Amino acid sequence: MHLARLPASVYRALIRREVITTFHNRFVQIFAVVAWAGSIAVAALSGRPEAVPYGLLLLFLYLVPLFGLLVGVSAAHEERDERAFL
């Protein structure tokens, strides 16, 4: 079956499932809190306003790959439980 011929309800169900799974993932919640707290800390602790973008860049260059790795491991772990249904 070609993917373009699937009904729109299948795509909606797939997107809804992925969004719900993502928001229930504890790594996403922790990433949001760490990114928010880190951004506030960078803004509060930087000596000059010109240093804020550089500090945020360094923060997110560290957090985004870490987040990607943790979400990938979590997704692989969750798929292991669903293998019996496939």
Q: In one word, what is the shape? A: elongated
Q: Please give the radius of gyration in angstroms.
A: 19 Å
Poorly predicted residue ranges: none
What's the count of strands? 0
In DSSP terms, counting alpha (H) and pi (I) runs of 4 or more, how many helices? 3
Helix content: over 70%
Mean pLDDT: 81
Give the helices and strands, then pairings.
Layout: H1 8-24, H2 26-45, H3 52-82
Notes on the structure:
The chain has 86 residues and is mainly alpha-helical. Helix content is 79%, strand content 0%. The chain has helices spanning 8-24, 26-45, 52-82. The longest helix is centred in the last third of the chain and has 31 residues, at 52-82. The radius of gyration is 19 Å and the shape is elongated. The mean pLDDT is 81.
Describe this structure in a few short sentences:
The protein is an all-alpha fold. The chain has three helices and no strands.
What descriptive keywords fit this protein?
single chain; 86 residues; mainly alpha; 3 helices; 79% helix; elongated
